[in-house]
Amino acid sequence: MPKNQTQSSAKELLKSLESTKDGCIYVVRDRIRWAFYVKGGKLVYASHSLESFERLERHLRALSRELPNLDDKLRSQLRLMFDDPDPENAKYKVTSEILCIEYIAILWLVNEHHLPSNMASKLIARVIQEVIEAFLCLPNGEFKGIYYEHLLQDTYCSLSIDRILEVVEQRLKAWYDLGPTISSPYQCPYLVSQTSAAKRMSLETVHRLGRILRGFNFCQLGALLGKDPLAIARQLCPLVSDGSILLRDPLSPFDMLPRTYYLAPEEERENIEKLSETFTDETNAGDDISSISQVFTNQESKTWKIVCIDDSESMLSIISSYLGSEDFQVTLIQDSMKALMKINSIRPDLILLDIGMPSVDGYQLCTLIRKSSSLKDIPIVMVTGNKGIIDRARARIAGATDYLTKPFVQADLLKMMMRHLI
Predict the structure, then answer these.
(1) Which among 297, 324, 343 is the end of a domain?
(2) Per residue in 381-391, pLDDT tens?
(3) Which of the residues 95, 261, 343, 410 has the least number of beta carbons within 10 Å of its own beta carbon?
(4) Are residues 356 and 238 located together in one domain of the fold?
(5) What is the pTM of this model?
(6) Which residues of 137-165 are buried (b: 16+ CB within 10 A; e: fewer)?
(7) Same domain for 232 and 188?
(8) How far is the CA of 281 from the CAs of 52, 80, 129, 172, 359, in angstroms?
(9) pLDDT tens digit sequence for 62-72
(10) Are 224 and 216 in contact (CB under 8 A)?
C-alpha cells in the first residue's frame, strides 16, 4: 500500500492489505488508533488503542483454562511489567507508538516459556478476531492507511484476510440480529427482576446470575465464564427482552467503539460456506435459556473476604458501597499500625492498600505483609492518586500485585476483583 492510500470502507482497507508489503498499516479514525501488521500478504497481528492490555488480559484469562499457569499472579506480573513499564528496566522497549505493548508482553510470555508458540498463535488469532469485529463496524468514510516498516520481532500467527473477513462478517450478522435489544458486545447486563427471571430458571441460578452480572460487559463475561461473548449475548437476550435484565451502555472508553446494530444489513449477508478452522465458533450450540442456566449453575458461589486499609474514612466508605455486602465481606481499617494484626486474624482473599498513610505507609505495610509466610500470597492492590512510573516501580519492589489509581469508579474496582478473585 502506498504511504497514504485512502479507502472508502473498513472492509476495502483490510482487503488491500493482501497486496501490501510486510509492515504495519496504521489508521486513525474517531480518535481510535488501529494497527494491522502484515507479513506475506497475511495478517499477523491487529490492535486498537482502547484498553489494549485489558483485551490481552481477557484472552489470557480465557486461555488459562487450557494453560493453568496463566493465572492471575502471572497476569498481574505482566501488567506491572508492561502496562506502564519503566524505560530503564523494561526487558523489551517500545521504540515506536505503533509497536503494541501487549504484543511485547506476548513475546515475553513465549520467551520465558509461559506460553507455547502454538498457544500464542491461538491467543493472537482471538485478539485479531475481536479487533477486526470492531473495525468492520465503523461507518463508511475516509480510511487513510499509513504504512510503516515492520517492527514485530517474532510472529506466531499468519491468517488469510479473506478467511478472517468471512468469519467476522458471519459473527457480525449474528450480533446484528440481536439488535436493537443488544447493540454492542461492550454493553453491561444487570439483573433487575429476579421474579421475571425465575420464570425461566431456578431461583438458585437466578441468584448466581445476579452475583456475576454486576458491571461486566459481554466480552468480560466471556472471559469469566469461558464462553464466546456472542453465545452469552444470545442466551441472555430473552431475559433482556422481558425486562429481567437491564442493559447499560458501554462504559468509557468502550463507548467510543461503533455499535454492531448500526451496520447496514446488506453488508452482513454475504454467502459464507464455512468458517475458518482458526477460530472456535460456539455460537450455534446451546442458544436457549437452559444452556445459560447450566453455565451459571456451575459457577462457584463464594463470599470473598476483602480488607481495605486507608486513613481516609470517606474513601473506605466509597469502597464499601462499591463492593456491596452480598459477594464481599469487607473489613475497613483506618489505622495502618494495627492493620497487620487484623490481617493475620482475617486471612483475606484480597487487600486494597492505600499508599499515602501516616505512621506506616502503604509501601512499608506491603513489605511487612510479604514477609509473613501465611500472608505472602494474598493479592495486594495498591490504591493511590499517583500515576508515575516511579510509584509503580516502588509498588512492585514492595511486593504489590496490582495498582489502582484514584479517582476510580465502581466498574474499575469490580474489574480488579474480576482480575484477582472471580
Answers:
(1) 297
(2) 988 876 666 66
(3) 95
(4) no
(5) 0.80
(6) bbeeeebebebeeebbeebbbbbebebbb
(7) yes
(8) 23, 33, 12, 13, 55
(9) 999 899 999 88
(10) yes
